[in-house]
Design goal:
692 residues, alpha+beta, Beta-Lactamase, Helix Hairpins, 4 domains, 6-stranded antiparallel sheet, 5-stranded antiparallel sheet, 49% helix, extended, histidine kinase, transferase, membrane, two-component regulatory system, kinase
Length: 692
């Protein structure tokens, strides 16, 4: 039994609608699953990069990776804060697990990871799918790893953060059920609407048209088909009515088509002439390419699809020491042997990848014909010559550049070693000087107090001078000890609630004698609405004393020093988050202290280095034993200690000045930012473990 058109259309519509909705829903589910995986992968990548940054900061301080502590706890913190993440481990380059958030992941399988292409300024990520058996069940995991680098750019380990395939499945399960439910409702509703539409707007007009066409086919040419509601069917009825009119005009249409053919032929002739002109231009372009190739300052070698040398330029003859006739026609392997290039299979692979469209840059060592090794940078890319794909290899001599880079790397390593030796000497010297200095100060005090009446007056004055010198030396050693403890992160803070304004007033009162001695005016502009902060009062007093003492020394007699306080809300977030649109950044309350003087000022290029250790040591002629003498320079530790104390409180310190001018006294302003609660500034070193 033949099916009617109506049944065929309805059946076909049902099948198409079902397949369309089903396939669309399936693709949406797959896309949603992919989005879930990408979102979790992006979160894993961010956590891995954050863990890598923390590890590299510690490594930069000279600590070996395997000697580090607290990494496993950091991994567990990452897992606890991200319930969708399954594990966080740190492995050596050979795959051996060093630290893990859970001992169950210590037996992580070693597989080759696929390196993800990174954007400019981003960290490259190694992705892979792994299968592990945990607690007797085997699950599939998405692993994201970043490379942990040494201070010299050498890979040391990998930080892995991964999540289970089961997490993605659990997130998608409810979505799939909802999608299937919506699929059924959409299918029933859509099919019902299509069925009603078909009956009213398709089948009824077709029946009317079929009846009229049947009458015309039986010879009733005067039959007129009435107007139909559907525009297309109405047009069909109108065209049937005027069909006889088209028969009369058939000859005219044929002539018109002939004219169109003549016009098309003229256009083809014009296209052919244009093609001839393009061919001529192409020949000139090839000649220009050959000319540029010959005059190029780099050695250029063209290799054919059969891996034979097709062309070399003049610079290649000078570069390799072989004439063009000695190289052209040689197989690629033979040329590589002549140039004494090692790892020929790798070079073959480079040329194959270049022939496939990749642009390859590789450094290699080769030998000239007359002897002598050189380092060359190879750039290989594919070019088209008709239907044939050629490989263009450009060799550039980078021997001198490589020597310069090696010397720079060696110099950098030597500077790092000297810096470590300086820090070690600082701690050792302060420790070794402390004991004999304590003895000197003790005996000096004993002589000047208990034995003063038994000692000659002249000797007593000498002992007093010795005691004063020892006291100054003791202050320097205390600064050296503080710097050493700050560098080694061993200085602990005793945190308490502090009224910052009262602390500033106490610091100014301690130095009031020096202000009056130098006839300097002190102006306090303190905001009394400031809240209390949590910090170490003793260390903050030391910070303020160092900054105010620096202002006293570099402000002339009769100058003015202004201390002001204010509160500010500032954006702070995760380490490395410099974009204010970063979702992890939030507003936090900071208290700002500014110390402004009318002194000699600071050069712009020195405004960052003034916080370095021993920065002032360079001008040894200007050193003074006076604590606040004008332009006197000490050991250069005061501002370094101040910065260390601010960093430990999670704050920031910087200086602003229009420049150095001992005649016009442009002055300088030190800015100190302290968070109301320590540890808010995630961009600084994490001293939270040192608080007690």
């Amino acid at each position: 039994m033949k099916m009617t058109l109506e049944k065929r259309i309805l059946l076909f519509s049902f099948l198409i609608l079902f397949l369309t909705i089903f396939i669309g829903s399936g693709m949406d589910i797959m896309a949603l699953r992919k989005d879930q995986v990408n979102a979790l992968s992006l979160r894993s990548k961010g956590l891995a990069v954050a863990l890598k940054s923390n590890i590299e900061k510690v490594i930069n301080l000279g600590l070996e990776l395997k000697d580090m502590t607290g990494v496993s706890e950091k991994c567990r913190e990452i897992i606890e804060g991200n319930p969708d993440i399954a594990y966080c481990v740190v492995t050596e380059l050979n795959g051996k697990v060093l630290f893990a958030s859970d001992p169950r992941f210590m037996a992580m399988p070693i597989q080759e990871s696929q390196k993800e292409e990174a954007r400019l300024g981003e960290e490259p990520v190694y992705k892979r799918r792994i299968t592990m058996t945990v607690d007797g069940s085997t699950n599939s995991y998405y692993d994201n790893a970043v490379m942990v680098m040494s201070p010299y750019g050498k890979p040391l380990a990998q930080a892995h953060v991964g999540f289970s395939d089961q997490v993605v499945f659990d997130k998608m399960k409810g979505m799939v059920l909802k999608t299937l439910f919506l699929l059924a409702i959409s299918l029933v509703t859509s099919f019902t609407l299509i069925m009603l539409f078909m009956k009213r707007y398709v089948m009824q007009p077709i029946s009317m048209l079929l009846k009229g066409v049947k009458q015309i086919s039986e010879g009733a040419f005067d039959t007129h088909i009435g107007e139909v509601q559907v525009y297309e069917f109405n047009e069909l009825a109108r065209n049937v009515n005027i069909m006889s009119q088209f028969l009369k005009n058939r000859d005219a249409e044929i002539k018109k088509n002939y004219q169109d053919m003549e016009r098309t032929f003229d256009e083809l002739q014009a296209s052919y002439r244009k093609l001839e002109k393009l061919s001529t231009d192409l020949e000139r372009s090839e000649e220009l390419y050959k000319s540029l190739m010959e005059d190029a300052s780099d050695a250029i070698v063209v290799i054919g699809a059969d891996e034979c040398i097709r062309m070399v330029n003049k610079m290649a003859e000078e570069f390799f020491g072989y004439e063009a006739k000695e190289l052209v026609g040689l197989p690629l392997t033979k040329m590589l042997l002549l140039l004494n290039i090692s790892n020929i299979p790798k070079v073959h692979r480079i040329f194959r990848e270049a022939a496939e469209g990749a642009h390859i840059a590789e450094e290699m060592q080769l030998s000239r014909k007359e002897g002598g090794a050189m380092v060359a940078m190879l750039h290989a890319s594919s070019i088209k010559s008709g239907s044939e794909t050629l490989v263009q290899a450009i060799f550039r001599d980078v021997t001198r550049e490589r020597e310069i880079i090696l010397n720079l790397e060696k110099s950098s390593a030597d500077l790092a070693r000297l810096n470590r030796m300086k820090d070690s000497f600082l701690g050792l010297a302060s420790h070794e000087l402390k004991t004999p200095l304590t003895v000197i100060m003790g005996y000096s005090e004993l002589i000047t107090t208990d034995l003063a009446d038994k000692v000659d007056k002249t000797v007593l004055e000498m002992v007093v001078n010795i005691a004063n010198a020892a006291a100054r030396l003791d202050n320097i050693i205390k600064d050296m000890v503080d710097v050493s403890m700050i560098d080694e992160k061993r200085l602990q803070l005793k945190v308490e609630e502090i009224q910052l304004n009262r602390l500033i007033e106490a610091s100014v009162n301690e130095l009031r004698f020096f202000f009056s001695m130098r006839k300097q005016e002190v102006v306090l502009s303190l905001d009394e609405s400031l809240p209390t902060i949590r910090g170490d009062a003793l260390r903050l007093m030391q910070l303020l004393s160092n900054i105010l003492g620096n202002a006293i020394k570099f402000t002339p007699d009769g100058g003015r020093i202004t201390v002001s306080t204010s509160a500010k809300y500032l954006l702070r977030g995760p380490a490395g988050a410099t974009d204010e649109s970063h979702p992890g950044r939030e507003h936090h309350l900071f208290l700002e202290i500014t110390v402004t003087d009318t002194g000699i000022g600071i050069d712009r290029e020195d405004q960052l280095r003034v916080f370095d250790k021993f920065y002032e040591v360079g001008n040894i002629q200007e050193h003074s034993s006076g604590k606040v003498a004008f332009k006197a320079k000490g050991a250069g530790l005061g501002l370094s200690i101040a910065k260390g104390i601010v960093d430990m409180h999670g704050g920031e310190i910087w200086v602003e000045s229009t420049g150095y001018n001992p005649d016009r006294f442009p002055g300088s302003t030190f800015h100190i930012l302290l968070p109301v609660s320590p540890g808010l500034n995630a961009g600084t070193t994490d001293y939270s473990r040192l608080l007690r």
